[in-house]
Amino acid sequence: MTISSTEPARDAEATQNNNSGVESTIPTIRVSNVSKWFGDVVSVNDVSLEVRPGLTGLLGPNGAGKTTLLRMICGLTRPSGGEITVLGEQVQNNPELYRRIGVMPEHQSTYDFMSGREFVELNARLQQVPDVSEAVDKAIEQVDMQDAQNRSLGGYSRGMKQRMRLAAVMVHDPEILLLDEPLSGTDPRQRIEFQELMDRLAEEGRTIMISSHILEEVEAVADRILLLVYGKLAASGDYHVIRQKLSDRPYVVRVGATDVRALAAGLITEPSVESISMDGEGYIQILSRSVRELQIAIPKAAQTLGIRLTRVDPLDDSLESVFTYLSGR
Amino acid sequence: MSQSLGDNPQTPQTPQIKSQPEGEVFDLGYRHYDGPRGGRGTAFLALYSDGLRTVMGLGRGVPAKIMPTIFALLALGPALFIVSLTSFVTLFASDPDEIELPGHEDYFQFTFIIMLLFAAIIGPALLSPDRRNSVLALYAVRPLKSLDYSLARWLAFFTFSVAFALIPQALLYLSFLLYDDSPGGYIKDHGRDLASFIGVGLILAAFMTSLAMAAASLTTRRAFASAGVIAFIFITAAVGGFGQEILTSDEDRQKYRQEHEPFKQHDGPQAPDGDAAHYLQLLILPDSVVEGLTGWIFGSRTEFPISPWWNVATISAITGAAFGITGFRYRKFGA
Amino acid sequence: MSALLSARNVTKVYGQTVALNDVTLDVEAGTTGLLGANGAGKSTLMTLFLGIIQPTSGQFSVFGEDGGDPIHAHRLIGYSPEYECLPPNVSAAEFVMHMARVSGLPRREARTRATDVLRHVGLDEERYRPMGTYSTGMKQRAKLAQAIVHDPQLVLLDEPTAGLDPAGRQEMLELIARTGHEFGISMLISSHLMGDIERTCDRIIVLEAGGLLEQGEVSRYTTDTETLVLEFDEGIEAVAEALSRWGIVSIFEGRALVIEDASPDDLDTIRDVVVETGALLHRLAPRAHSLSDIFRRPVQ
Hints:
The complex is a heterotrimer.
Chain A: E1 29-38, E2 41-51, E3 54-59, H1 66-73, E4 81-86, E5 89-90, H2 95-98, E6 101-104, H3 116-126, H4 132-142, H5 158-170, E7 176-180, H6 188-203, E8 207-211, H7 215-221, E9 224-229, E10 232-237, H8 239-245, E11 251-257, H9 260-267, E12 273-278, E13 284-288, H10 291-305, E14 309-314, H11 319-328
Helix pairs in contact in A: 3-4, 3-5, 4-5, 9-10
Chain B: H1 40-56, H2 63-92, H3 104-122, H4 128-132, H5 136-140, H6 146-179, H7 183-189, H8 191-217, H9 222-247, H10 250-260, H11 275-284, H12 286-298, H13 308-329
Helix pairs in contact in B: 1-6, 2-3, 2-6, 3-6, 3-8, 3-9, 3-12, 6-7, 6-8, 8-9, 8-12, 8-13, 9-11, 11-12, 12-13
Chain C: E1 5-14, E2 17-27, E3 31-35, H1 42-49, E4 57-62, E5 65-66, H2 70-76, E6 77-80, H3 92-102, H4 107-120, H5 136-148, E7 154-158, H6 166-181, E8 186-191, H7 194-200, E9 203-208, E10 211-217, H8 218-221, E11 224-234, H9 236-245, E12 251-253, E13 256-259, H10 264-277, E14 280-288, H11 293-296
Parallel strand pairs in C: 3-8, 3-9, 6-7, 7-8
Antiparallel strand pairs in C: 1-2, 1-4, 4-5, 9-10, 11-13, 11-14, 12-13
């Protein structure tokens, strides 16, 4: 995915094939220099990005502008500045385009008196789906809600409502899915099923954007992420690559070995090592700002000293730490 | 330890008590609590005093204090007015005894309306917000038994209702007392007045409090409860009024007019002779129930269509039912 | 060690819905996580132990007392519900002090305890402002404060990270971990997020659709396996090839190289191969089981 951002483009064209193996060159969603302000409050500040088929995670702290951005993408709000195109067209007042988009907002009331199935049917009809019954069956099956489909929504648990809402959003077989906190209220088993469902949908060539606070979930599902902080795009792409590019950020590795102190003594002479400390569990933690050099130095020092390495674990490798670092800058 | 250089070691020195430098680091970490722990009594008291604060709007920002202030003024204002009227009349009128000044009983007529509004508007603040904010769940896991919460709140509001009813009356009493020629004699002569207004005040306070609490316990929104209380009074008044009209035949009306024309000083409710109408009016219309009761207690009324004990029964029944509703709504609370 | 809370064959039925189905479990001292989806029965279980609702059938005991004498138990328990429960027009300082008093603390001690506890949960000047002006994070802290102000032995927290963004969630989990370990208060934390439980709890109880799925020590579920996972920033193919020449079979899994049944001696070979090929070693670690494995097993 090519990213054009206000920061100097430094992201190499990482081989971002979508799962179907076809290199897509046409971005499904293109956001160009988009801003949105409400009076004095600038909610989205000159953001440019592109979203391609596959699964993209949209992240950011509260108030970062994620929801506003999503609303602009689905045409609910007009950008104050800049332009958004979806599948090459403007979204506003474009009913044909709406048919190809499915949106699941974070907070949505459902008609509690309806049954789950009726709710999905309603959406199918609103979207003028040709064969309603079949589409509804398929959508409900995809979210594994066949048993409960005829019960009223008022009796559903939160996780069940979420799944039914997802079915309603998918019933018209949209190419593009925008989901805001789709996993809230679901349990781990449902989340695993959701991940599998998302993988399947992405493989079919759809463009799916998921906004979530639960970073470990996004990590598991998304191919790439977009991180918004205070209305600006702070990072995009594969978070491992992002992590590598945060070269001015200290890198902490936890190392286990048969003789950690000797290893520590050997490594402390390395210029790439800033500090070494013992943690309470028998490992050493090495702080460095030269990732590459350290990655070479550790096994080499172990080999030279005849020490067996049992563990090398970068401590801040998670999406969470990348997020925390970037949101704090 | 510290001796200045050059001191002669032979010379006996007064020991210079320069103490060792001292320092201490205090543990600011979490401490467990080993102090006294009260039981239901402390909890009850806390709920009661919190209730008092709620009525007065203390610790809840400025907007919460507006209504209580208005009501305080409303309660005292007329009393102060009568007091000044009394002093004016006493001091400047040629024959003070000839002038009829509003007395305790009359004041209660006015007070009834104001107390009603007070109960309706402020009363629910004690129960509805806690329900609305789901704070009750937090109380439910405290050492409280089922009636503790509602009773504590009831008492808090009752305290203010009583104050509302009695303080102005006390003011009146004092002013009458002081402006009388012989205060000592006044006390002796008007003992019944004192007992009466205290009694009626307590009854009214209990009645109003129970109504307000019952309404509040039925809804999470304060405004609905307020509307409910007011509606109760007005609707019963309307029902009673209509019912009374319907049940009174023209004959009865004429008969009544003949017997009671001209009216006496006490412009009480039109009391037709029909039995059904009697009961209807005296049992349903809270304000006339209260009036009848007041008249009876104060002794100003000697004729009653039906025994005033029925009025007592009605008031007690309504109060009891209201209290019961409140208790019922909170029955699952706590233990 | 006797359990703080025990349930034996507890069932709770609401009309058509079975919220809890014949559940038997124990909550011991320490930090215990209650994991399950919304509707799995977590809140029902908690409110049951708290005495707010009664079971349809079955027995339970609280601090050793059958059915739990609420008056006694409530002194030893603190509760922070999932939903909003703070009056918006009152300040945290006033509210927490009031709650302390309702828990039986005398006036002066209530005030000092409230002040201390608010400091420990990290509410500074905000404590004097009405709670309606608080952010979600501050509200969660205030809820925790009123739950521990009377120094209970056990605190029940229902979804304490609900509504928090990642930074807020991190802070809240750290606070909870501190409360459990530093302050020495046992906790029962319910959440539908595994990460919450993993980061704070020693023990775990898993509920699914009203029934008990698992209970035990978290460490039991997160043991290392025999499988080794290698990740490289560069040179992964060279390493795989070199390893195979040494007779070590490795499989590509995404961006990682996985070696099953690795022996300790293999570690030396791996190290030497890495040095030889000049690959950039990003990670070398045994794959650990995770809590999510519980959910990958087929449903009984």
